[in-house]
Amino acid sequence: MLTGEVAALKALADPTRLRLLELIASGERCVCDLHTPLGLAQNLASHHLRVLREAGLVRSRKSSRWSYYSLDRDRLAAVLAAVGGLLETGPPDPAPACCEEG
């Protein structure tokens, strides 16, 4: 698995970040609209959004003093495809002889 996918999976491992992705899945949202439903301080929500942005899962744009976030759907699809590809590799190789019970 590529390094970028690992970073994305690490970002997705946090329940708060998953919830943020759910909130912005329907369209672009301002950080000021995201922190309240999660019960987070705005700076903590911004921290989680920064992790998601650095992992390439969300895009951001600045408008005056507010930041707006949206899903990077292509990137999210690529990460999901990389994980799904693990299931398509075929049956596992047999265990080496040193591990066989006998």
Give a structural overview.
With 102 residues, the chain is of the alpha+beta class. The chain has a single domain, classed as Arc Repressor Mutant, subunit A. It is 53% helix and 14% strand. It has helices at 3-12, 15-24, 31-38, 42-54, 73-85, and strands spanning 29-30, 58-63, 66-71. A hairpin with a 2-residue loop joins strand 2 and strand 3 (66-71). Helix 3 crosses helix 4 (42-54). The model has no long low-confidence stretch (mean pLDDT 87).
Layout of strands and helices, then pairs:
Blueprint: H1 3-12, H2 15-24, E1 29-30, H3 31-38, H4 42-54, E2 58-63, E3 66-71, H5 73-85
Helix pairs in contact: 3-4
What overall geometry do the principal axes of the alpha carbons give?
Answer: elongated
Name the CATH superfamily assignment. Answer: Winged helix-like DNA-binding domain superfamily/Winged helix DNA-binding domain
The count of DSSP E runs of length 2 or more, i.e. the number of strands, is: 3
Helix content: 40-55%
Poorly predicted spans: none
Task: From the alpha carbons, calculate the radius of gyration and give it in angstroms.
Answer: 18 Å
CATH topology: Arc Repressor Mutant, subunit A
- Which CATH class applies here? Mainly Alpha
Task: Give the strand order of the largest sheet, numbering strands 1, 2, ... along the chain.
Answer: 1-3-2
**What is the overall number of helices?**
5
How much of the sequence is in beta strands? Answer: 5-15%
Quaternary status of these chains? single chain
CA-CA gap between termini: 35 Å
Class from helix and strand fractions:
alpha+beta
Instruction: Tell me the CATH architecture.
Output: Orthogonal Bundle
String of helices and strands: HHEHHEEH
Overall average residue pLDDT = 87
Total individual domains: 1
Give the biggest beta sheet.
Answer: 3 strands, antiparallel
